[in-house]
Design brief:
Helix content is 29%, strand content 25%. By secondary structure, it is α+β, with helices and mostly antiparallel strands. Helix 1 crosses helix 4. The two termini are 27 Å apart.
Length: 290
């Protein structure tokens, strides 16, 4: 919803020809070998989304639109009637279960991941055609994912010697203080971590069995937190639980891509300049959304 940004980041034309961040992701995904796009939108935004974006993609990109809303909960479950906040990123992923039958990637619509990240993800997913319980994520260095305008939320990761994810914790307040990256832990203490600590920017690779795991864990989530007003069912919650239960493995895939995004309105000028530079370098064509 862009509460810190002051508006819908997904609809903000940041490119030199009115491109939004999502346009770059779709373009990069298609040339990396992905076969279709599934857009997850809230019902209140669906009409605006169809009017603005469908003309850009119709006839160029195979796509589906699915709706995420609060009432999309398993039969027999209830939630606080005063709740307005969506259920979170993993609930959004679950909305694609009816239209996804193959290995797939998950991204945020308002994050720029870079050309190489999509190439790396596509290549790995193509090895998972007949696989189950083997997932992956693009790992970014936390020091390269911060905002100069305020705190950010990241999935902070640990890994083993084989580059497999061993744990992931969603940290809701991460900043750079006195040259060090620090996050606020559950005891309200600030903890310093190295700049090269891998973090998830919500660029994941899954196979369709992930939907079944998500459904069961979402039921557990609703039993525990379903009556809360702001609790969210994040992807890292599911991944961390599955890894600890030794049900899945998640490979951390390195990339040379540089992530950037617009967490705050103050981030906008630098992002506009970076997209202009990418076009000037010939990485993206002027007619990308024509």
């Amino acid at each position: 919803m862009g509460s810190r940004y002051g508006g819908l980041k997904q609809l903000d034309g940041l490119g030199p020809h009115g491109e939004v961040i999502m346009d770059y992701s779709v373009f990069d995904a298609m040339r990396a070998g992905f076969g279709k796009v599934v857009f997850v939108v809230r019902r209140a935004m669906e009409d605006a989304f169809r009017k603005e974006f469908i003309p850009r993609y119709r006839g160029k990109v195979p796509f589906e639109i699915v709706v995420q809303e609060l009432d999309a909960v398993p039969a027999g479950f209830t939630y606080n009637p005063e709740r307005e906040k969506p259920w979170g990123t993993n609930h959004a992923v679950m909305m694609g279960a009816a239209v996804i039958r193959e290995p797939f990637a998950v991204i945020n619509a308002d994050d720029y991941y870079g050309v190489d990240a999509f190439k790396v993800m596509s290549a790995y997913l193509q090895t998972l055609t007949d696989s189950r319980q083997k997932y992956c994520m693009i790992g970014f260095r936390i020091g390269n994912t911060l905002s100069e305008s305020g705190s950010v939320t990241r999935g902070v990761c640990t890994k083993d010697a084989h580059e497999n994810l061993t744990s992931i914790v969603e940290r809701l307040y991460i900043v750079r203080e006195n040259g060090q990256v620090k996050y606020r832990d559950e005891h309200d203490a600030m903890v310093a971590i190295p700049d090269d600590t891998p973090v998830s920017m919500n660029m994941w690779g899954f196979t369709p069995d992930y939907f079944s795991y998500s459904e069961e864990l979402f039921k557990n989530f609703l039993k525990e937190k379903g009556q809360e007003l702001k609790s969210e069912f994040f992807i890292p919650i599911v991944i961390d639980a599955l890894i600890k239960a030794q049900k899945v493995s998640v490979k951390i895939l390195p990339t040379v891509s540089q992530w950037f995004g617009v967490t705050y309105r103050e981030d906008r000028p630098s992002v506009v300049a970076r997209f202009q530079a990418l076009h000037d370098a010939g990485i993206y064509p002027a007619d990308m959304i024509d």
